Amino acid sequence: MANKLWKSVYSHEIKSLNYLNSIQAKWEAIQYRADDAIFLDTRGFVSESPICNVFLVSSGVLATPQVSNGILHGITRKNVIEIARELGMAVQERDITPYELIHADEVFLTRHTQKLYLW
Fold first, then answer.
1. Other C-beta atoms lying within 10 Å of the C-beta of residue 51
2. How far apart are the first and last CA of the chain?
3. CA distance 23 to 70
4. Contact call for residues 1 and 40 (beta carbons, < 8 A)
5. Would you tell me which of 46, 50, 99, 105 could form a disulfide with 22, CB atoms 3.0–4.6 Å apart?
6. Hey, which residues are catalytic here?
7. Looking at beta carbons, which pairs linking 70-76 to residues 24 or more positions away fall under 8 Å?
8. Distance in angstroms (rounded) separating the CA atoms of residues 94 and 27
9. 17 pLDDT exceeds 90?
10. What is the pTM (predicted TM-score) of this model?
C-alpha cells in the first residue's frame, strides 16, 4: 500500500493528466507480483487503487472509503452502492484501515471501463 500524496497535487478529485503517482504505484505492485496497488490517504486510511474504487465485505456489510478520503467519485462505485442497498445489504461509506482490508471476507475493485475485479 502506498501513501497518497497531498490532495492538492495528485488527487483524482482534481481532473488533470498527471498520472505519475498512479503509474509509480502500479509499477511497484508489479514488482511485488501484486494484482494492483492500494493508496492510503494522508491519515493512513484506504483510499483507492491507481484506477479503481475499493470495496470490502466483512460480516455481510459492504464498506467503501468515504468521498472525503480523496477518492474518485466513480459512476460504477455509485451503482454498486445503490444495487447493494436495493438488495437489502448494509452499506457503509467510512474510513477503512489497511488491517480491515487485509482481513475482509471479500475485497473487490470497480472501474467503469473494465470488469469487476474480485480478490
1. 18
2. 16
3. 18
4. yes
5. 50
6. 15
7. 70/4, 70/7, 70/11, 70/12, 70/13, 70/41, 70/42, 71/12, 71/13, 71/47, 72/12, 72/13, 72/48, 73/13, 74/110, 74/111, 74/112, 75/112, 76/110, 76/111, 76/112
8. 28
9. no
10. 0.78
